[in-house]
Amino acid sequence: MPRxxxxxxxxxxxxxxxxxxxxxxxxxxxxxxxxxxxIVLSVALIILANHFEVWKHIKGNENVVSSEQILEExxxxxxxxxxxxxxxxxxxxxxxxxxxxxxxxxGISFDKIxxxxxxxxxxxxxxxxxxxxxxxxxRPDSCSTPCSFVYQPDPYGYVVYSLEDSxxxxxxxxxxxxxxxxxxGTVTSSxxxxxxxxGLQPAVIDMMEDALSSAVDFYHAQKGDRFKLVFERNYxxxxxxxxxxxxxxxxxNDYGQHxxxxxxxxxxxxxxxxxxxxxxRAFLRAPVKFSRISSxxxxxxxxxxxxxxxxxxxxxxxxxxxxxxxxxxxxxxxIAGYGKGNGKYVKLRHNKTxxxxxxxxxxxxKGIRKGTRVGQGQxxxxxxxxxxxxxxxxxxxxxxxxxxxxxxxxxxxxxxxIKKDELEDYFIKRDEMxxxxxxxxxxxxxxxxxxxxxxxxx
Length: 458
Ligand SMILES: [Zn+2]
Fold this sequence. Notes:
The protein is an alpha+beta fold. It has helices spanning 29-43, 46-61, 67-76, 99-105, 110-124, 192-197, 201-211, 420-438, 445-451; strands spanning 7-12, 15-21, 77-78, 81-82, 87-92, 134-139, 148-154, 157-162, 169-173, 177-188, 226-236, 239-253, 256-264, 269-272, 292-295, 315-318, 324-326, 331-339, 343-349, 354-364, 373-374, 379-383, 393-400, 403-405. Helix 1 runs antiparallel to helix 2 and helix 2 crosses helix 8. The longest helix is centred in the last third of the chain and has 19 residues, at 420-438. The chain starts with 6 loop residues before the first strand and ends in a 7-residue tail after the last helix. Residues 1-67, 190-200 and 445-458 have low confidence and may be disordered. The protein binds zinc ion (ZN).
């Protein structure tokens, strides 16, 4: 593992005044802001102009939404219900309780409860509700029978069990808002563990290693190597839930300076250097971040459930329920289906040679069905234990020319560079990102103090 060789230390991490929204529905406000920027640009210094270009680019594609706005929206609407017209009561689920009893107590007939149980099976079965979590009952007035109850299995969404005559059950994905943030750091000798304690930061480092994987040899990172990053952090209900896309990365070592710029167009989606050459491996190392390999590809494995020797033609990555599963390369969904052993699974075709498969999913990501095009790193589903599985994990399988292989032993061809006719477009994006990276500072205040004892007095 490369991790033992070095530690990466992040010095600062400042949220930028820019936020983007993942589901842009209304972009009418953008025109006014663009016009304002144009006026500002005409009078600003050249340096400033450059800065605004960057800002404009980031907000240009998607909506700008402030956290205050989102909070306001939440206050008006809760689980899709207008808060001024409904009453909400939370009830903690306790072990050994029967949902049927709870609902009966709320005035729901046993007949309805039985039908609801049946109806919930395909969406989110009421049998999966867990002690320690909450049910929120929704009522049209404070003492009436509830018209629905809501359960939140994970931070990404909630299930609405409607108790109206139609007995509707639906899973609602929450809106994810991405803020652009920056970070920089220096490779030190022993700080990897400190970073793990830091929660989200290792995810960013992981993405940097992926983005620069063909340009930088991270297995031989040296003390004193330095890096800078521009990335998105995702928020749900105003709370950080994890990092999103890495937008740009810079890495400096004895061999020079390396840039990776995320570029997406009709023809490309990936990371490229300043000349437009791919800086990322054609295939990601793993479909889940921070997972633990719980079982490697093994032609002679004792099966944990069946108890017989059955070859394990995949690699198992153990991760908590609901962890996003990423496509390891660009491709097309061949199957998004269900199998008795596989559970919910997705199979992707990447090109004539390679296919990959992801088993035991809790659920598919939005829009994932046969024929869907996916980009490298795109979320295609969430970790679960459907089918024949002892706990939450992804069984990841890799086919080469129709034969299953151990992807951890495969040498993949490098990704393709951007073609000449698209380079001009790429260079515009590149310049913006390079500017953003270049203005990030390396030294933290602490570091300055260490280097310059005179500063101690100030
Ligand atoms: Zn497996």
